Amino acid sequence: MKSRAESAVETPGGTVALGSLPPEQLDRLQGELQREVQMISASLSQLSNAVSRLTASKENAAQIAEMSNDQEILVPLTSSIYVPGRLADTKMVLIDIGTGFFVEKSPAAAEIHFAKRATLLKEEADKATQVHTQKRQQLEAVSAVLQRKTAELASQNRETKKEET
Amino acid sequence: MAEMQVLSNMKRRIEKLVGEVKEVQNDLANSVNTMNNLQSQLTENKLVKDELDNLEQGAKIFKLVGPVLIPQQADEAKSTVNTRIEYISKEVKNAKERAQKVEKEQQQRRVTLLTEQQKFQALVQQVSAQKQ
């Protein structure tokens, strides 16, 4: 990382040395970065949720593959009521491929499908994590410079007041 | 106190400008949101298309309509998804253009506000210098 004196931030207008910005703009930049960091955090947690759901589905598909027809199972009606049932068909499972479409697949194919999607999402999450770290570093740099400038302004104000009295 | 009159007029103008800038900012946040939503819909539809294109022959496809699963032909499902992708792509393009327009407007308003504020400050300094 660069030292604080030359810390710079990418803006739509190009790279800007933070030290050269007036406090108002720094404040705005800080707000923008804070919002971005928050947004990325939210998507990151969504992504990790989705990955764990997909992993759970993959494990379930693997379990079904090992079971035989007529195997007794307990079917959840709600999270607290279960009724006994029998597996009618363990050769096919129905999976949700998104936007309201469902496809029948063999449990093995379903496993592959879920694994593929999980990898895809993990890649996205990795990318998002990188951007997240980067933005957080920028935010820290901006906050530090802003703090320094505010402190400088405050001490300047005190001195001019002293001179006046 | 002619200066005072001018100053308070300017102050009111600046307050109005600040309000306008905030409004445009909200507008921008909204359009960015819409764009992101559309973009994620597009991604999801593309994933579904990919899945449908790589299906094994004879695989059964169902579409969820309300609470029921309705069997569908592969061709039918594919054309539905393709139409959706086309439609959403258009929407994304529109939303992008709109967001860009709003952003430009925001920049302009900000510049107007800034120059107005600078004028105001210059005048304030002038007036206080005259007093001394």
Automatic annotation (TrEMBL), chain A:
A Gene Ontology biological process term: RNA polymerase I assembly
GO molecular function, one term: unfolded protein binding
Region (Disordered): 1-22
InterPro entries (UniProt xref): PFD_alpha_archaea, Prefoldin, Prefoldin_subunit_alpha
GO cellular component: cytoplasm; prefoldin complex
Protein family (similarity comment): Belongs to the prefoldin subunit alpha family.
PANTHER family given in the database record: PREFOLDIN SUBUNIT 5
Protein name: Prefoldin subunit 5
Gene source species: Chondrus crispus
TrEMBL record, chain B:
PANTHER family listed in its UniProt record: PREFOLDIN SUBUNIT 6
GO MF annotations in UniProt: protein-folding chaperone binding; unfolded protein binding
Similarity comment: Belongs to the prefoldin subunit beta family.
Name recorded for this polypeptide: Prefoldin subunit 6
Keyword Transmembrane helix (UniProt): no
Statement: the UniProt record of this protein carries the keyword Repressor: no
Gene3D superfamilies: 1.10.287.370
Coiled coil location: 7-58
One matching Pfam family: Prefoldin_2
Protein species of origin: Chondrus crispus (Carrageen Irish moss)
This protein's UniProt keywords: Chaperone, Coiled coil
Lineage of producing organism: Eukaryota, Rhodophyta, Florideophyceae, Rhodymeniophycidae, Gigartinales
An example Gene Ontology biological process: chaperone-mediated protein complex assembly
GO cellular component, one term: cytoplasm
